[in-house]
């Protein structure tokens, strides 16, 4: 699943390419979208801005209309010049927004709906989101509080719970827990507030660094099962975890399985 940093990067790229432009043509394979476009055309509207909330990408048009898309596992937005060859097959196309200068194409986006700004604020998927880890006004205390409200959950699962904290995906769940030296299997109730805060702070730092420098990321544990730990040389382990069976990678030596004892500071 794309993480919050990927969605934010996509939103920024779309915003740079499209903000201020007027839509010349709108096309979608979703009947719900084309119905609205028929009654109240998207063509002729100005694209005011594009932003991200958690893993939702929001395209705001003039006349109080917002297109909300969620990428789930394989969805993505691409930007093309008119007539340029698409990098994904036509049958994966879900939405096309043309402006005469730039075309934005959504591929394999499973969730897409139009809303007014007021509707959007009431949409459960957005209304119930926890604090957005990449937001400028990220409220870390509230995120820590919401995680602490899930005492029986493992810390790895709590980090993926978008109602506790929005924007963290499987990559930064694994990476942040390694860098903060916390076992992914620790129950939230066994962790101190300071430890939870340290994990969240670490995820914030890693994700913010990645927004500006995505090409150079090198992971500590993510997708490194069976390879030696970059810190201690022990073999990185891998296991499916949680109801969604997401892959967890960890170093048994570096990531303290007993969080009540002292957790040494990460030397990074
Ligand atoms: Zn290690």
Tell me what the structure shows:
The protein is an alpha+beta fold and 268 residues long. The chain has eight helices and ten strands. It has helices at 4-18, 31-39, 117-122, 124-127, 140-148, 155-160, 170-179, 193-212, and strands at 25-28, 47-53, 56-61, 65-70, 76-80, 93-98, 103-107, 111-115, 237-241, 246-250. Strands 1-6-7-5 form a four-stranded antiparallel β-sheet. It has a four-stranded antiparallel β-sheet with strand order 2-3-4-8. A two-stranded antiparallel sheet has the order 9-10. Helix 1 packs parallel to helix 8 (193-212) and helix 5 (140-148) crosses helix 8. Bound molecules: zinc ion. Zinc ion (ZN) is lined by residues 229, 231-232, 234, 251, 253-254. Zinc ion (ZN) binds next to loops.
Approximately how much helix is present in the residues? 25-40%
Proportion of β residues? 15-25%
What are the segments in which pLDDT stays under 50 over at least 5 consecutive residues? Answer: 259-268
Shape estimate: elongated
**Tell me about the biggest sheet?**
4 strands, antiparallel
Q: How many H/I helical runs?
A: 8
**How are the strands of the biggest sheet laid out side by side?**
1-6-7-5
Structural class: alpha+beta
Radius of gyration: 20 Å
End-to-end separation in angstroms reads 26 Å
Topology order in helix (H) and strand (E) letters: HEHEEEEEEEHHHHHHEE
How many strands in all? 10
- The average pLDDT score comes to 90
| Bound molecule kinds, no repeats | zinc ion
